[in-house]
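Technical appendix A lists one of the benchmark inputs used to test multi-chain prediction within the project. The record comprises two sequence entries:
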Amino acid sequence: MSDLSAARTATERRNRWLLLSPALLILIFAAAGPLLIVVVYSFLTPGDYGGVKPEFSWNAWFSVVMERDFFTEELTFADAHLSIFWRSLKLSLMTTVAAFVFGFPTAYFIATRPKRSRDAWMLLIMIPFWTNLLIRTFAIMELIRAEGTVNTLLLWLGIIDAPIQMLFTEFSIMLGMVYVYLPLMVLPIYASMERFDFSLVEAGYDLYATRWKVLTKVIFPLVKPGVIAGSILVFVPCLGAYVTPRVLGGGKNLMLGNLIELQFGQGRNWPLGAALSLTLLAIVMVALLFYVRAAGQEGEKSHG
Amino acid sequence: MIAIENVTKIYGEGKSAFRALDDVSVTIKDNEFFTLLGPSGCGKTTLLRTIAGFVDPSSGSIRLGGKDILQSPPYKRPVNTVFQNYALFPHMTVAQNIAFGLEMLGKPKREVKATVEEMLELVRMTPMADRQTGQISGGQQQRVALARALAPRPQVLLLDEPLSALDFKLRKDMQLELKRLQTETGITFVFVTHDQEEALTMSDRIAVMNAGKIRQIGGARDIYDQPAERFVADFIGDTNFLDVEVLEITGDAARVRLAGGAETTARGAAEAGTGMGAATLATRPEHARLVPVGQGVMEGLLSQVVYFGTDTHYHVTLSDGAAFTLRQQNTPDMAHAFTQGDRVGIHLAPGVGQLLKD
């Protein structure tokens, strides 16, 4: 009897490991492994033609923020890197804010439509999202280039005399990113608005709240989790955006993603690329931490 | 005083147009507990929402204290609503919910605090002031919703079936509580319900509505004892409708002949405007009594006896096939002389049946 049950436990244990193995394999080979390699590479010396030499070095991490003058060996902040960090942060934040400004009313509009037409509206939001990123980015390019649709139209209408330089500016990068990531803002806000009880709006009006007060005191606090989720979903990929700044920034306005790519490509400095990647990861983690805490407080408030 | 004049609300257009309110006129007095009673879809909630400002009537006028309020948005009307689902703000505490209206009116902090405390006291929720609204029971949420609507001291409090989500015992308590609050605050209450018992026990006056129209307005007694038409008699309480022939009319009273040939007296002849000849007599189940065969004005077969604790309901199939229900109080000394399947006689209290024109 005890032999039988012992055998059964052994089988059960083996089965458990078998069932877990797909998840474990993914975690080891697709997440932990690559991350470990990146961490190790960031502490090695760059190889002459790309790759790394197995010699320990702090140099990559050092050059993330500092640079040593080639001749005088004077230490200064790596202005180029810092300005790219700053531009990435700034553009990501501005994109998030812009996506909120456009996304919130959109989500509100859809959530207040009759139930049957909501899905159709959501489909309209989702179709661009399912379209290839490059196609969408080049579409924006066609719209805003000097001889593009917008400039041509404005010239024809006589509103401007000369084409406005929109392409290859920070504006064009932001425009592209807002367009690309807008659905990621609309979706979570819409999801929380769909659950929102609109009789609370009537209660607000009934209790002498104006439209603005109802929006800020009743609607916004209750859909805030959706707004936070949407902001994270937009902010995080913006930080690492590669295609959009590459195509619409014209190589002048680099963002973090382009800088990292540069190190692995022309720069032939894989350790620095690895260190920059980890820096980006750290920034994202900080953003997520902020999100988890904000969302956690919200949860405590309503449940605890 | 709320003066509602010729208010009509039409939803949709053309063939699919639906008259939710059909030329409704009613005047609700100050400090009155006024109830709109009717089946679902009768327009009572639409009328309430029109007063609150959530529905724009197609035509007509509503004046509050002589001032036309139809032009004002809901947040400018001195009217507050207790919603059917309470609609408490889930991200605020009990106290914050009650304070909301006062804060929106821009009252000074000290006054807000004092009023909130007073309201908490009034609805006996002081110990729960800092609870989240999700942490209190349905009955407590109900009281918070009341306090929140009463806090800004509206001229009129609108209540949209506020007790329908509560269980039986709690509903009884809240009925008394509502009546107490109305008396204590002196605010006009306009109460919407489909529950006739609720309407009868609490209201000063009741408007019975059906199909967008007000069918009868009056006190609980008037409406119960002297229904103006078949719908009202049928909707409020249980009623037996008997086909009769009017033989003689003296003022409001009438001598009528029942289907079996026996005669009795009824009232309402003047109001109903019945002439001689065929009419309908409405009698309440408690106004009739079972008697041995031959002693009553009607006869029939006792088809069912249902015991209800305080009283017993007897269902009788009359000789002409019509159904008749009687209700008799159960008293300790009562002899249960009649059992299912017996042939029985029915005695009608003379002069209490109401004549209706058909």
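The radius of gyration of chain B is 24 Å. Chain B touches chain A at residues 52-54, 73-76, 79-81, 83, 85, 87-91, 100-101, 104-105, 132, 134, 148-149, 152 (CB under 8 Å). Comparable benchmark entries are summarised in Table A2.
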